[in-house]
């Protein structure tokens, strides 16, 4: 007998049965076994080393696939050093060439100036510069030789550089700059920079230290310049030779690097996937505990019960392929831990499953597979007729394209959009309209004019001359004075009927959950009173709607429902739809009143009684049992294994649940009226775009205005009716599912089954 007894298993509506498994794998076959399990993708490992840091795990440094990476890093470092040396030599060559001009020009100018000053000042003056005073006041044999610093400075900093030199040395330097015509590659930054060659003449170590600090502050690169002319020519020759050698070396290195990168590029995707697989394998191996004495790894995890044979076959194949003398052990563990939720999906159902997963995952109270999504009632079918063809074209085009976030989301939900389009087309057929234009697809209308001229059609109306239109709304309603009141009443009542049916379905699903888990308390003190309360009020309203449609009565249902509460014993008068209606209303009202305390009081006291019996040892649960007769008690289990039961908390929780259901029955029913409002808005927008844009442009008998009208009509139809209203329909349908429907039975407090799989590695990369 199954867990549900005589009840159907309904595997398509529930999560796959899960089991906790222990794997004992020999070390020599561990890598291959984990790799095969990754290919299978049906085993979720538990981390048995959660208390250890990543560096303390067994396989923390196992992945070593960096041969090409090390070679590339070394090549890049060498190339960077060579390129820097090459740029420095280029700058040095420029300094040697330009500084010669500055040096000899400064020397000749100094000699000429010295002679002029000697002739003009004779023995010296207080106004003479310090350097010249020193030179003139000493004998030629005792004169101090001037030092100099040469290099390159950025042209944009050259003026500030010169000013700082002058102020810091109080004018006791001779500074000269020569412009370099072409931009120079800076050895440090590697950027092209416009620079000037500078030479600064000074006297004394103190001035030299100041100049060197200023050069460092301005990022000026200094290069030595020999005094001897022969050494200058020798240095230029040596630098030119080194530049030629470095250029050749750099070109060869770049060619080798390009060849290496090209060879890597051919295998990069495969290597990238291989490295990710290896890292994921060793990351999973680090989640297993190492048994040193037995030379094996012990792992635990969850898997579906249907995958037992597949996992065992994979482990056996890993043992054979690794030539291991000992096979892996597969052992099922009995536990009360909550299993993950797992639904098998395909390309069509995966998008619907993602929508349900966004609400939450379930393991406890009925893991129903909510893959069916309702669609908002659109008024016409014309706009949505475009959608299926657009879906097919989008699917074909996007398969080979790199998707952005928005397009990837739309592509993932293409089947949701397709289903919305198909159901919207069906709804358009119900209303017998196409782009707000009525059509008689299923035969002629049941109504016609009173005479051939139809003069009284707008005043006296039409008369029924044939049988009722066979499918949907009669197209003659379109454009009449009573179209809006008639369709509003129809849509409002249809919205209420759909809402009551869906809420009843949710409560019925809670019954199957209770039977599946053998929880009689939820059957008798949750399902039964909820069904009585909802249908005593709003189920009765649905009955009145159907009876009114069938009988053609003019009864005011608002009056009936209001006075059912205010004056239940008064006669209904002209609002009576059938015999005995007053007594039925009184009985239903009493049933609804009884259902409220029925939901509120018995369950907490019965839970308390179960707890007391369990505490006295009068009730036991099997260790290997998959059912839980009273899950509410499990929620109050202490961290030390002792059960804790707070009656006040349970009672308050039941009060909240009861109030939420009673008030929600009213608010949820009213919430389904959004279907009426959205359908009305869509209908009116479609009519406005057709009559006030397309027909208005057609009436001008002007080609230019007609083209503009068609373009505006297409843009408005696509932008508003197709895109915005489709998104609006999806969001409102999602709200009705999450709040009004799933709240009746769906808990969503579980967690998703996340198996170790190589497929997810590729998905994460994309």
Keywords:
single chain, 766 residues, alpha+beta, 5-stranded antiparallel sheet, 4-stranded antiparallel sheet, 21 helices, elongated, disordered N terminus, V-type_ATPase_116kDa_su_euka
Describe this structure in words.
Essential component of the vacuolar proton pump (V-ATPase), a multimeric enzyme that catalyzes the translocation of protons across the membranes. Required for assembly and activity of the V-ATPase. One of its GO terms (cellular component) is vacuolar proton-transporting V-type ATPase, V0 domain. The protein has helices at residues 27-40, 67-121, 130-137, 158-168, 205-217, 229-285, 308-321, 347-359, 382-398, 405-412, 414-431, 483-516, 520-551, 557-566, 581-600, 602-615, 631-634, 647-671, 674-698, 703-741, 758-765, and strands spanning 18-26, 44-46, 147-154, 174-179, 184-185, 192-193, 195-202, 221-222, 289-291, 296-304, 329-333, 433-434, 437-438, 447-448, 463-464. With 766 residues, it is of the alpha+beta class. The protein is elongated, with a radius of gyration of 44 Å. The two termini are 45 Å apart.
A few lines on this structure:
It holds the Pfam family V_ATPase_I. This protein has 766 residues and is an alpha+beta fold.
Show the helix and strand layout.
Elements: E1 18-26, H1 27-40, E2 44-46, H2 67-121, H3 130-137, E3 147-154, H4 158-168, E4 174-179, E5 184-185, E6 192-193, E7 195-202, H5 205-217, E8 221-222, H6 229-285, E9 289-291, E10 296-304, H7 308-321, E11 329-333, H8 347-359, H9 382-398, H10 405-412, H11 414-431, E12 433-434, E13 437-438, E14 447-448, E15 463-464, H12 483-516, H13 520-551, H14 557-566, H15 581-600, H16 602-615, H17 631-634, H18 647-671, H19 674-698, H20 703-741, H21 758-765
Antiparallel strand pairs: 1-10, 1-11, 2-10, 3-7, 3-8, 4-7, 5-6, 9-10, 12-13, 14-15
Helix pairs in contact: 1-6, 1-7, 2-6, 4-5, 9-11, 12-13, 12-19, 13-15, 13-18, 16-18, 19-20
Family: Belongs to the V-ATPase 116 kDa subunit family.
Membrane topology: Multi-pass membrane protein
GO biological process, one term: vacuolar acidification
